[in-house]
């Protein structure tokens, strides 16, 4: 039984399409987790290999109670704000590393299973996706806060329109006969309802007026091994998050900018580019800057050096 491996990742795609050889799933705004169960032992790992057992103890109970005793599951842990998944709400929970405190947080978490590369004693990565999902539907007990990720056959354009009406993050299109391949693939495509992606924090500004903690974050992405400046983000923060960010960022300050093309401004606190945040925005400008960005939350499930500017086909 494998103990760790790289998950399959989708490629950004900007043109809705319908095709009978593809299936379409809701894109969830959560944290990707790989679940490993071997008998009584369960482990939860992020896509970059960080153990998350203490952060989500309810999931350990959920998977330990399953009738199938040996498996690897691929899915997403989410928190809801009304009927919509909310990464900012999940981020409040994901930062709690004490199991008892996590259970008492009042933030309910849910897990959506959408794939499996390994079940019982079988490596099923070469089994077509539609058959893998059929196996998943049959072997797990979907009760409590565990859900099977439903899909729609063929009609991606209608599902994307529905996603926009309901305020979803987007949809994921998957070739129905695709194998499970580690790493990024064009056999899985993500279509977003609005722009947004992970970006690296490279600095922050001083707060002004009655603002506390910090004023704005300076964000960037990697291109040819260099960190490129993408603009500043000054909205979307709670007071508690402003205080927390100031505390952790001030501890990693540096004298020189981490960006290859830093903004020519005074009064910026440069930091080590080791933290990643989820940023929502309307579009990229022609000079490579974020338009109307907002902070959704910090995430630690991705290596900063993997953060690149997401454009269609990459």
Summarize this structure briefly:
This protein has helices spanning 57-64, 87-94, 99-103, 129-139, 156-166, 239-250; strands at 8-12, 22-27, 31-38, 41-46, 70-78, 80-81, 84-85, 110-119, 122-123, 146-148, 151-153, 170-175, 183-192, 196-205, 217-223, 226-233, 253-254, 268-280, 283-284, 290-291, 294-299. With 314 residues, the protein is α+β, with helices and mostly antiparallel strands.
Describe this structure in words.
The chain is an alpha+beta fold and 314 residues long. The protein folds into 2 domains: 185 residues, D-amino Acid Aminotransferase, Chain A, domain 1 (2-Layer Sandwich); 111 residues, OB fold (Dihydrolipoamide Acetyltransferase, E2P). It is 18% helix and 39% strand. The protein is built from 6 helices and 21 strands. Strands 3, 4, 5, 8, 9 and 10 form a 6-stranded mixed β-sheet that branches. Strands 14, 15, 16, 17, 18 and 21 form a 6-stranded antiparallel β-sheet that branches. The chain has a 5-stranded mixed β-sheet with strand order 1-13-12-2-11. β19 and β20 form a beta hairpin. The longest helix is centred in the C-terminal third of the chain and has 12 residues. The mean pLDDT is 93.
């Amino acid at each position: 039984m494998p103990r760790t491996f790289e998950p399959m990742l989708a490629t950004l795609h900007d043109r809705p399409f319908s095709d009978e050889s593809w299936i379409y799933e809701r894109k969830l705004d959560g944290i990707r987790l790989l679940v490993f169960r071997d008998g009584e032992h369960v482990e939860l790992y992020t896509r970059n290999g960080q153990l998350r057992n203490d952060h989500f103890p309810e999931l350990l109970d959920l998977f330990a109670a399953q009738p199938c005793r040996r498996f690897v599951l691929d899915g997403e842990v989410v928190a809801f704000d009304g009927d919509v998944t909310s990464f900012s709400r999940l981020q409040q929970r994901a930062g709690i590393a004490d199991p008892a405190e996590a259970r008492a947080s009042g933030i309910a978490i849910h897990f959506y299973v959408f794939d499996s590369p390994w079940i019982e004693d079988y490596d099923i990565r070469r089994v077509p996706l539609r058959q893998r999902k059929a196996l998943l539907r049959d072997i797990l007990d979907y009760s409590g806060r565990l859900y099977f990720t439903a899909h729609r056959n063929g009609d991606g354009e209608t599902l994307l329109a529905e996603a926009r009406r309901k305020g979803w993050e987007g949809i994921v299109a998957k070739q129905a006969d695709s194998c499970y391949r580690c790493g990024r693939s064009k056999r899985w495509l993500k279509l977003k309802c609005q722009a947004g992606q992970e970006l690296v924090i490279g600095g922050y500004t001083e707060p002004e007026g009655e603002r506390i903690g910090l004023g704005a974050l300076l964000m960037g992405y990697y291109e040819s091994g260099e960190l490129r400046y993408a603009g500043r983000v000054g909205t979307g923060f709670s007071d508690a998050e402003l205080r927390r960010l100031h505390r952790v960022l001030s501890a990693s300050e540096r004298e020189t900018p981490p960006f290859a093309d830093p903004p020519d401004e005074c009064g910026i606190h440069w930091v080590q580019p080791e933290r990643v945040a989820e940023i929502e925005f309307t579009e990229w400008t022609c000079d490579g800057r974020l338009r109307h960005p907002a902070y959704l939350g910090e995430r630690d499930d991705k290596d900063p050096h993997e953060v690149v500017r997401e454009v269609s086909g990459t």
